[in-house]
Amino acid sequence: MEGKCIKDSCVTISYVMLPEDANPAGNVHGGIIMKHIDMTGGVVAMRHSRSNVVTASIDSLIFHYPVFIGDLITLKASLNMVARSSMEVGVRVETENLFTGEVRHTASAYLTFVALDRNGRPSRVPPLILETEEDQRRNRQATARREIRLAEKNKKAAESKK
Q: What is the span of the domain harbouring residue 126?
């Protein structure tokens, strides 16, 4: 299976936040932003694997600033790491006030997706080609996060057998 570069699957997607996305005070619901993060990350994983994918985990979703009705959110997503059938995607959310032009880093998240074959079973994905020092740094950090996730998963599995 031939490897693919990070730049071949990264995406940038923008949405205007509307009244139906918010509470009566005009604050956009975190769940709406989470949905857009999941969708954007999924697009990256599908572009890389060229298969259906499912979300296996969402790590470190941190909201830095609120989002309001009328704001433009822009989600920038790219692959950080690829394993046999899983992929970690990093998503950065920026919010622009369309009246003032102010742009803020609103949220960031790391998501793990698993590629599925036509029978719904995990399937191999192409290896990731790391072209830059930044790609290598992000890949090392993603690998460390994966090790922590797997250790936690194994710990919970062992506890449930007791």
A: 4-160
Q: Within 10 A of 24 (CB to CB), how many other CB atoms are there?
A: 6
Confidence of residue 117 (pLDDT cuts 50, 70, 90): very high
- 3-state DSSP helix/strand/coil percent for the chain, to nearest 5? 35, 40, 30
CATH number for the domain spanning 60: value is 3.10.129.10
Question: CB neighbours of 84 closer than 8 A, spacing ≥ 6?
Answer: 122, 124, 125
Domain count, the chain: 1
pLDDT the model gives residue 157: 85
What pTM value is reported for the model? Answer: 0.92
Q: How far is CA 30 from CA 8, 21, 34, 37, 56, in A?
A: 29, 9, 6, 10, 19
The H-assigned helical ranges of the chain are: 30-49, 133-160
Written as six digits, the tokens of 108 are 């960031």
The 10s digit of each residue's pLDDT in 5-44 is: 999 999 999 999 999 999 999 999 999 999 999 999 999 9
